[in-house]
Amino acid sequence: MSATTKTDIQKGVDAKTAVDTTGLKFKGDTATTSNTKKLGDTVSITGDTNISTVATTDGVQVKLNPNL
Q1: Does 40 have pLDDT greater than 80?
Q2: Cα separation, 2 vs 29, whole angstroms
Q3: pLDDT above 90 (res 12)
Q4: What is the distance of C-alpha 51 from the center of its chain?
Q5: How much is the CA Rg of the chain, to the nearest whole Å?
Q6: Cα dist. 30→7, 34, 56 in Å?
Q7: What is the pTM of this model?
């Protein structure tokens, strides 16, 4: 195998490692720290008394209760 091929293979391995280990970071309005989720993990988005959330095929719908 040529040195170029070995270098290209290593670049692919390095890219896969970055995707597998880096993940996505999520931070809320009041949080001082972020939470990291890996690919394939579930992220729960929850509301409260006046806010509801619904998972749709296009994303997450956030609704404000009309009767505050």
Answers
A1: yes
A2: 51
A3: yes
A4: 22
A5: 20
A6: 44, 11, 26
A7: 0.53
Q: Can you list the positions of beta strands (E) in 1-68? A: 24-26, 35-37, 51-55, 60-64
Smallest CA-to-CA distance from 43 within 57, 25, 61 is with: 25
Which residues have a Cβ under 8 Å from the Cβ of 53 and sit 6 or more positions away? 45, 46, 47, 60, 61, 62, 63
Could you tell me if 60 and 43 are in contact, meaning their C-beta atoms sit under 8 angstroms apart? no
Map out the domains of the chain as residue ranges: 3-64
C-alpha span between 58 and 68 (Å, rounded): 27
Q: In this structure, are residues 45 and 52 in contact, taking their beta carbons and an 8 Å threshold?
A: no
Q: Which of 2-6, 30-34, 35-39, 49-53 tops mean pLDDT? A: 2-6
